[in-house]
Each structure stands twice: as structure tokens, then as C-alpha cells.
Amino acid sequence: MARAKTASLQRLRASDGRVPGRRGRATRERLLSCTADLLEKNSYRDLKVIDIARCAGTSPATFYQYFNDVEAAVLELARTLQEEGSVLVGLIRDSSWKGARGYDTALSLTDAFLDLWERHRAILRVVDLATAEGDLHFQNIRTHLLNEVTLALRDVIEGFREQKRHPHDLDPMAQAASLVSMLAHVAAHRYGFEFWGIRLDKMRESVARLLYWGVAGRAAP
Predict the structure, then answer these.
(1) 100-159 confidence digits (pLDDT tens)
(2) Where are any strands of DSSP class E within 72-219?
(3) What is the pTM of this model?
(4) CATH number, domain 73-216
(5) Taking 90 as the threshold, does the pLDDT of residue 96 lie above it?
(6) What is the spatial distance between Cα 40 and Cα 111, in angstroms, rounded to a whole number?
(7) Does domain 9-68 have CATH number 3.30.70.141?
(8) Within 10 Å of residue 119's Cβ, how many Cβ atoms?
(9) Of the candidates 217, 203, 221, the residue with the CA atom closest to the CA atom of residue 111
(10) Rounded CA separation 138/202 (Å)
């Protein structure tokens, strides 16, 4: 808890090292909110400090008090996504994966991924692009977002393997990583599937059935 609080304070520090007060934090949040809004309408590469400052009703000089550049602001937005991972982990670890309740859990996890990508589509698009280009900062954020989810699924799969629901030579980590990759890919490309004429509710059901089978080692009830 102490380490998390320290890390949070470090992230709040302005460029000159000071921790901003209430008004400063409000300005910082307004700048981040404007960055997120502008990313919805503009390419990350086209985003300019002056545009963010204008949106926030302040000056570029004020922006630079809190962030070194646009990338630093986008990185901060991306880091907040890591907190979303704990919600997914809780869903995996605290829910039943057996029988009809297990299929409901698979549906809930599928919905959670779809919702996460829908709410943060612009930021996740930047994370995916920068990761593909080899940017280690964004790559680490994506890894942390999905790694704990993968580990949680691995543990559930391992439990079913011990019950002989999976082949003894199945690698639970490989299985979990494959399932998480499927969830992330479908969530990121939902509009592409709809363009191809695939209804979202049918895609959701298909993903949940594959997820349940991959975790529990049985066809969905």
C-alpha cells in the first residue's frame, strides 16, 4: 500500500518536482481529459501541446509544468489502464468457472474486455501502435495490463488440469495467453467484425464459448 501511494505521488509531481495542490491537480486532470478527448478525433502523431492547452483553457507553458511533452501525457493516460486490469483479475479469481455459472463468468469476462476497449479505444489504439513500433514504455504498460489477467486465468486452468479436465501435457500459461490474446483482439476489432456482417451478440457468444472451453476443458452448457 505504501509503495503504491509513493508511486502515485511520483506520478503527480510537476515537471519541476513539486507535488501540485488541489488547483494544480485539477488543472492536470483537465489537461489529461482534453488529451483523451482529442485522441478520439485526431491521430496521436498529429496531437499538439497547443491544442491540448487550448482545450483545457490554459497555456502551453502550463502544460509543460505538468508534462514534458504530448507523449508523457498520453503515457499517463495509458498507465491508468493498469488499474482496470485488477477488475478483470477479480472477476476471474472470484467467480465460479463450473457449469452454467462458469459460462456466465466467461460471458462476463468477454463483456468486460469489450467494455474496456470501448471506453478507452483511443488510448489503447496508441498503446498498440507504439508497442508494434517497439516503444518499451507503451509495451510495458500493455504487458502489465494483460499479464495479471493471464496469470489469473492460468491458475484457474491449472486447477481444471489437476481435475483431469485438460490433457496432462497442456501448458496452462500458453493456454491462458492464447485466450487473453483472443479477447483483446476481438475487443479491438469489434467494428471490423460488424462491418463484415457479424453481429456483436453472436461474436460475444462465440468468444465466451471458446473461453469457457479453454478454461474449463468442457463445451459450454
Answers:
(1) 999 999 999 999 999 999 999 889 888 888 888 888 888 888 888 899 999 999 999 999
(2) none
(3) 0.80
(4) 1.10.357.10
(5) yes
(6) 22
(7) no
(8) 12
(9) 203
(10) 32
